[in-house]
Write a structure and sequence with these properties.
heterodimer; A: 360 residues; 8 helices; 20 strands; 23% helix; B: mainly alpha; MetI-like fold; 2 domains; three-stranded mixed β-sheet; two-stranded antiparallel ribbon; 5 strands; globular; binds adenosine-5'-diphosphate; binds magnesium ion
Chain lengths: 360, 603
Amino acid sequence: MAEVRLEGVSKYFGRFKALDGISFTVSPGEIFTLLGPSGCGKTTTLRVIAGFEIPEEGRVYIDGVDVTFKKPYERNTAMVFQNYALWPHMTVFDNIAYGLKVRGYSREEIRRRVNWALELLGLKGLENRYPLQLSGGQQQRVALARAIVVEPKVLLFDEPLSNLDAKLRVRVREEIVSLQRKLRITTIYVTHDQEEAMSISDRIAVMDRGRIIQVGTPWEIYSNPANLFVATFMGRSNVLEGVVVSRESDNLYVVDVRGLRIYGVSRDKLEKGDKVKVVIRNEDAELLEEDRRSPNVLEGRVVRTSLIGFAIQVRLLLDNGETINVYLKNKTSISEEERLRVYVSPEDVKVYKALETVEE
Amino acid sequence: MISQATRRITGFLAYQLDPPLVVLLLFSLTMFSAVLVVPLMVLLLRPAMSISLDVVRGLLSYPYVAWPPLGEWIIFVDRGDHTLIIVRFKDMGIILNTIMIAFSVTVIATIVGVLVALVTARYEFPGRSLLRIMALVPLLYTPFVNAFVAYKIFGDNGLLYHALLKLGMGYTIEVTYIAGVIVAQAMMFWPIVYLNTLAALLQIDPSLEEQAENMGARGFRLFRTVTLPLSLPGIAAGSGLVFIFSMEDLAAPIAFKVDRVVSREIVKAIVGSRDVAFLSIEVIVLAGLLLITALLWLTVVKQYVSLRQYAMVVRGGRWKPRVAKPGPLMYAIIYLVVFPIVIFSMLPQLGVIVYAFSESWVHVLPSGFTLDHFRELVRDPSVVNGLRNSLVYSTTATILIIIISTTIAYVASRVRFAGVGALDLLATSPLAIPGLSIALGLVILYSLGPFKDSLVDPFRNPAVLITLAYAIRKGPFTTRAVYAGLQQVHQALEEAGMNLGASRSRVLFTIVLPLIGLNVMAGAIVSFVYCMTEVSTSIVLGALNPEQAPVTYVIYEYVTAGYGGGAFIHLAAAIVTMTMALQILAITISNYILRFRYAFLGV
Ligand SMILES: Nc1ncnc2c1ncn2[C@@H]1O[C@H](COP(=O)(O)OP(=O)(O)O)[C@@H](O)[C@H]1O
Ligand SMILES: [Mg+2]
């Protein structure tokens, strides 16, 4: 089990700064996920760790050894590529055996280890097939087998599920987690899908435009997003504009949103009169049956409803003119034009200083 | 303390280029320097040391420049019952003749080539596929003999002359001398413009044209404002090559008895010279001028397209190109203009076959079917010797080509580093550099100083230089095929190998080469065939020691000896028919493998 540490890594492509002072430490044996929108530098970070790119600034350590300038083939990382990168001219067996041959193992040893990997990933019987004769899920597992069979110090996954259909995706990601738990290889996983990230990771690093915005456990990131970007990136949410009315306690504020009083929490130090953004997750609203007038009760008319499986998504035109989307898990059906009241608990209302706008 | 920038660059280089790859690259670069760059530099620099005002003055007067021009443009001969019109053009001296011919040929070839390309790319009509195939026939390389057939067709006392006489219209025509060279070369070279233009047209995103049409541009206006500008790179590339090939051509001037052109002057100077000291400064300057023209063209084309892309262009369209039904006028143009031109241009190649299988072809029609010429080939010791030499040189050259082209193409397309663009240029430019200039540069460089009397001295042992020149000149066909293959190999396939611990060259040999092996083979087959038919360096270097001369030199000797139709021309035609069959075979195989239609067009 190896520790991976990046210190102030910056990478330029021409003038464009793809990575901007990336630092993080991956603990031995954990699954660490880089999460962020497309183009934020996740793949580039993996490639720096694998040695395909050498950063202009900063250092990369694997197991305490500075590998920043080492060749890719001297690092003992193993990458599972987005498109699997299986060699079409080699059989499944030869694909998996490649890294072992390079390492100079005996024929016997290669056979033994490849068999172990085939067994582990349920690929027995497919060893003489060519990659093009396999299904997407099987190809994925061959790529995984090829990576783990060399006993790498670090496993690197670059959006490994993006070429699979939705059903398979969930199954394969469970398989990846259980395999990783068994082998305990330090794993760095890249995805742009926050749900995927939350379900598999020990810790997540949220990236935006070449920077790490927040590192933490899935729960920390979900429950306490560091800024507006993270708050809106994790899950579906509504962003309302408002003004601070008063500070109630340590981090609890009252905000005025177009005449509506809303209590919410903030990580920022806010003053009365500050312009703020108020983030309310769709799933954090609950339907109020009784007629109760209190803060954080939002009242309005149903504009649109749509069933999304576990809940009903309701589009609500509030009395103050704002529109919000909420997921409601009630049993009775909700019809359009109906009037509704929903409640959001103050801990679920996140308030951020307005200058932290995400420019598009 | 080494800075991060330095460590970054060295670290990056170290993994991009591991020692075996560096060795291969150095070997390839050495070959290019030794056979291309240095000889050409010597060719350009040598006159600089000894050129004088007298030489310049000499080059501006007869026989280099004849002003006013000598002879007549057109002669009318009254023969009582009919008038003979002899179109011949005036002799303007070696330099001006060459330029005038090349310019005229380029203009004609460009007009015809663009016309045929437009028609086949944009219109759907019965016989289109046939037209596309027929248009490639003139590109079948039949050294010298096709030019003699052209002469037979419309030269002195030719088929055209007799046909018009038979019609009894009161006049008849011979196109001969310089005018004959122009027509013959135009017939030979327009398909080069055609192919390059066609490739460009097939590359144009149809939506661009549709957009313009949406805005109301139609017909010729659409062509002038959208289609033409977009296909200009292809047209420019093709036309430039025609200009260079025309200047370098020996066949048509020999067939039409034009002595005063640059190519013949160079060959005349070298054939029969026993020592490099006999080479006049004027001849070296002429070869230098050929070279400079080619380099200028390369610089211009480079503005448009990287030659690497250019290599890709031949793969044809990625999308379904727009085709239309022709209107009545277009039908008339297609069947009354385009088809006749294309069929006319095929005649030299067809005539070669007629020569090869006929007993004699002195009069209008050939007589007596025979296979004797082919039998004669295996008995004639100089042919057998020439064929054997060609096979040895071409095989050796092809092995070198496989090594050099694969290395250069791989490094140029995979290693991200400054200067890689130059590699690309180096690898593909020999196609456009006149072989006569290369040959002369080699003769000068390797007969001097330390090389004199060594293994590579061309006056003693031209075999070595011929082989090396083949490897450099005909390598681009393979380089191109390898480029095409590398485009298909996703970079992640290689990175996966390195990620699992394999070095760059191990990845090259275990992953890349198995995947592009067919491309390498397809390219190598084409390179091999074009080595077998190489003319310029074969003649110049072969003449220095006929024992070691390749078969193309033997053909050259036979056609110059058998001027106009003696037995020798039949023998030469038989050889050329065989090489033509070889070309068709190679092209078919490589196209089958590579699945692109124009892979072979050397140009
Ligand atoms: N080789 C490259 N050359 C130039 N720009 C690149 C290169 N690789 C990535 N980039 C740019 O760097 C940014 C980050 O890319 P990447 O790491 O692939 O993002 P992600 O994987 O998060 O989608 C993108 O804007 C991308 O266009
Ligand atoms: Mg990516």
